[in-house]
Amino acid sequence: MQPDVFLIVLIIFFVVIAVILVSGIRIVNQTRKYVVERLGAYHATWGVGFHWLIPFVDKVVSVVSLKEQVKDFDPQAVITKDNVTMQIDTIVFFQVTDPKLYAYGVENPINAIESISATTLRNIIGDLELDTSLTSRDIINEKMRLILDDATDKWGIKVNRVEVKNIMPPKDIRESMEKQMRAERERRQTILIAEGEKRAKILEAEGINESIILKAEAEKRQVVLQAEAEAEAIFKLKEAEALGIKLIKEAGADEAVLRIKAFEALAKLADGQSTKIVVPSNLADLAGMVTALTETAKTTKEPTSKK
What we know:
By secondary structure, the chain is α+β, with helices and mostly antiparallel strands. The chain has helices spanning 2-23, 99-104, 109-126, 130-134, 137-152, 171-251, 255-271, 283-306; strands spanning 25-28, 32-38, 41-46, 49-52, 58-65, 69-72, 76-79, 85-96, 157-168. The protein is 62% helix and 20% strand. The strands form three sheets. Strands 6, 7, 8 and 9 form a four-stranded antiparallel beta sheet that branches. It has a three-stranded antiparallel beta sheet with strand order 3-2-5. It has a two-stranded antiparallel sheet with strand order 1-4. The protein is elongated and about 180 Å long.
């Protein structure tokens, strides 16, 4: 019996040893770091890969994530330079850069960041008036980021970005701001309507003016064209008369022909719209006058041709 008991005890011993050895195996993934102490003192920071923890000697005191973390802090009561109390909540984006400092630098890093964030926010807003604080979010964000990054550097934390999420003034201030914004919108609307009406009247006046000018120019062109047409007609008429006299002269018309032409002219006068026609008492005298004019034209032409 004794050999069997000894064998059982030996097996149990080896099993316990194997369990202890296996329980010391640690596999660290890429996004984490293990802070290890040996006999109560800092020993090492384990990165990605396979590690073995010595039982009863080594201890993992902190498992740190290397991912960027986001912390949304509760609204903080702050007072502006013009003594207006309002609620502001912030969001902080940070990342652990040194796991050892993160594990040993401060007892609770998240609470520490929240506390210093609230203090920094009160200091910044205390130097700004209400209107400025409402329109200066970028300035507030950048100042808080610089202050928090400097304060948390000794804790192994890198503050990447700080965002002011909400700025909530008191209810009476919000109502006053809404009334002011409504009045400003109504004022802009009134100005736009007035400018539109003014522009419409100007365009209408310009249209009437251009219409008058175009109408006057059209009437002017019409008068000019009519005058040119009348002048052209008179010129054509005189040209035709001159041509007729020339043809009569070249044809050598005698006294009988001239008398016939005189009678035809009288007939044309009779066909007109005149209510009174004056007829010479002696038509022969009219014909003789025409003959004399013809002879005079011939006499004038002959010296010219001799030259």
